[in-house]
Amino acid sequence: MIRILTSSDIKTIFSVINDAAQAYKGMIPADRWKEPYMPINELKEEIEAGVKFFGWEEEEGDKLIGVMGFQPVKDTTLIRHAYVLTKYQKRGIGRKLLSYLMSLAKTPEILVGTWEDATWAIQFYEKYGFKLVTPKEKDRLLRKYWNIPERQIETSVVLKYERSSL
């Protein structure tokens, strides 16, 4: 079941993100890795900046096992911080969350940023119609819609979904 997450869910969102982000350890540039991957204060800052988190809960037990953020910014929509607990991955939870958030978007395009070395994440989004943008376009989009350090811009990619491709 998908539900919007609230401030009372912050500790659980934090746990899901930091469990699933272990996949990045040793894959992304070492200077971008930290423990925890997303500290709780950063998570709170993302929420204050307008990221609305949605979560997937088990039907029985109300256990939060997947999270994904949704952030309208200017004339586009960003999908942010998509994570599923490691032991629940490859069960369609990410697909269900992504499909739901895409249905909420009111903009002609939806953007996702991820690490260029996270090939599994890139392939996931490509499976659902997202296309990698050129490096020049990536730099422009990351600077326009995200608030991230220059080093992260250098080591990331952006994928775009255009509604006209429906």
Task: Give an account of the 3D structure.
The chain has 166 residues and is α+β, with helices and mostly antiparallel strands. The chain has one domain: Gcn5-related N-acetyltransferase (GNAT) (Aminopeptidase, 3-Layer(aba) Sandwich). The protein is 34% helix and 27% strand. It has six helices and seven strands; from the N terminus they run E-H-H-E-E-E-H-E-H-E-H-H-E. It has a seven-stranded mixed β-sheet with strand order 1-2-3-4-5-7-6, with helices on both faces. The two termini are 25 Å apart. The mean pLDDT is 95.
List the helices and strands and how they pair.
Elements: E1 2-4, H1 10-20, H2 40-48, E2 52-57, E3 64-73, E4 76-84, H3 93-104, E5 109-115, H4 119-127, E6 131-132, H5 135-145, H6 150-154, E7 156-162
Parallel strand pairs: 4-5
Antiparallel strand pairs: 1-2, 2-3, 3-4, 5-7, 6-7
Rounded mean pLDDT score: 95
What share of residues are in beta strands?
Answer: 25-35%
Structural class determined from secondary elements: alpha+beta
Report the order of strands and helices.
Answer: EHHEEEHEHEHHE
The domain tally reads: 1
| Low-confidence regions | none
- Superfamily at the CATH H level? Gcn5-related N-acetyltransferase (GNAT)
CATH architecture: 3-Layer(aba) Sandwich
Main beta-sheet annotation: 7 strands, mixed
* Cα separation of the termini: 25 Å
> What is the CATH domain class?
Alpha Beta
What is the β-strand count?
Answer: 7
- Radius of gyration, CA atoms, in whole angstroms: 15 Å
The side-by-side strand order for the widest beta sheet comes to 1-2-3-4-5-7-6
CATH topology: Aminopeptidase
Specify the helix fraction band.
25-40%
Give the overall shape: globular
Number of helices: 6
Oligomer: single chain
